[in-house]
Every structure is written in C-alpha cells, then in structure tokens.
Amino acid sequence: MDAKHFDQWVDTSLSAFEAALDGLVPEKAPAGLGEAMRYAALGGGKRLRPLLVLASCAAVGGDGFAAMRAACAVELIHAYSLVHDDMPCMDNDVLRRGKPTTHVKFGEAQAMLAGDAMQALAFEVLTPGDGIAPALQARLCAQLARASGYDGMAGGQAIDLASIGKALDETTLRDMHRRKTGVLLQASVMMGAACGAVPAQATESLSRYGAALGLAFQVVDDILDVTQDSEVLGKTAGKDQDANKPTYVSVLGLEPARQLAQQLRAEAKAALAASGLADVSLLSLLADSVVERVN
C-alpha cells in the first residue's frame, strides 16, 4: 500500500471511529458529567490505538463490528488515563491536545469522575447485548483489563511517580514504559487480532510487533518532549525534564534515543514479516507514522 492509499484508509477509518465514539459517550450523564467525558474523549488526539485495533483486524480478516467496539473501548481507557495523569496529584499538567486539561476546565472532582466513568464505559462498550459472541467479549475484556491494571498502565504510572528524581538504568526505564505506554498499544494490536481467526505463529508475531511499537512510541515521545515546543505537541513541552523524571533522552542521550527508535521500528517490521499474514501493510505504515511523527 502506498502513502496515498494509507492516508485514505486513515481518514475513512477515523471518520467511522469518531462517529462510533460520539454515539457511545453520553451527553446527558448527571450533573454535567457527560460534558466532561465528551470533552476528554472526543475531538482530539492521534487515535493511534484505535487505528492499531482496526489495522490488526484488517490483517486477519476479522469482524469489523467487534473491532470498532474494541477501538472505542481502548480509546476510552486511554482518555481516562490522560485525565487522571494530568491531575495535580499526578503530573499536574494544564495542557492536553492543545486545550486546557479536563481538571482545569471542569475542576478536579469532575475530572476524576469523568475518568472513572470512561473506564467503566470502556467495558460496557465491549459487552453489547448482541453483535459480539460472549467468548470474544470475555477475551477482549480480559485483554483490556490486563493492559490497564497493576501489571500494565497503572503499574507503569506508579513506577513513574516513584522514580522522580532517581537515576534509572535502561532496563528499569524500559520496564516502566513497557507498562505505562507499551502494554496498551500492544493490547490494541492483540484485541484487533482477537476479532479474527489467527494462527499461533501470527499471534506471536503480532504480539512482538505490538511490544516493539509500544516502546518505540514512548522513545519518540521522550525525544519530542525535548525537541518540540508546546504549540506543536499540543501539551506542555519539557515537562519531564522540569519534573526531573527519567526518560530515554536523559538516560541514553538524544542521538542514542533516536537510534533506538529506529531499531525498534525495524524489530516491529521484522515481526510483521514473520507473521505469515498476507497483508500487513497497514500495520507497517503505522509503525512508520509512530517513529516519524512530530507531535
């Protein structure tokens, strides 16, 4: 697939995704809660996780309805995590996706509740009354729960907060970011694959692809934090350095971090090549977009 057709696929997929997510996030939750949820979840972000779900499903010829539900669920988990991470008790940030963070806009209590409600909604989205077989519902819920919990995103954030001002070696840093960022990206790939019938070889290869891509995303994030300004990023630039948090740039240096991102892209593409799947071009081009992005 060439760049033009890839861009067309992205535009078409995101249009369908945004419509689906808009229909799932309620406007009329009590006491303005729906407004806060929609502010946090809709109209912004790279939407990488949903695209990974949809691309992985396409690679295995899976069920589109289940994949779209999974894409929405993953993004709801991601959105809730950003709301909570931005709060004063965590990263204390005031800018996200080019606009005030949810707690700045709605207050801390409402932001906390919006995050809680989006987390719960994610699992409600995965368990509709019909359209997804019960066994697949259970599998998707288990994958998302594992990626979100103590051994995944929440555990990584706990390590991140405990590591402020500490010198970490690369192994510890990699484990932190594998949990905090990588596991949910990997789960996005595997949830898309779960929507189809996948041979064991392809499942293992897609898992390795997701792991490499997830780490590459964080390495590039660390690079952009010190090389781009807030206007381009849509969030506060240099905040990790200001908070004395360990990053790939602070541990390895800027150029070695860039080299690592390229190495991880190569690992991701090698995993795809070993999958035995007929067409993994969407996933391959998504890996390029992760490493080559500017925000």
Automatic annotation (TrEMBL):
Matches recorded under PROSITE patterns: POLYPRENYL_SYNTHASE_1, POLYPRENYL_SYNTHASE_2
Cofactor: Mg(2+)
Alphabetically ordered keywords of this record: Isoprene biosynthesis, Magnesium, Metal-binding, Transferase
Entries under NCBIfam families matching the protein: FPPsyn (NF045485)
Entry's family note: Belongs to the FPP/GGPP synthase family.
Protein name: Polyprenyl synthetase family protein
Organism in which the protein naturally occurs: Pelomonas cellulosilytica
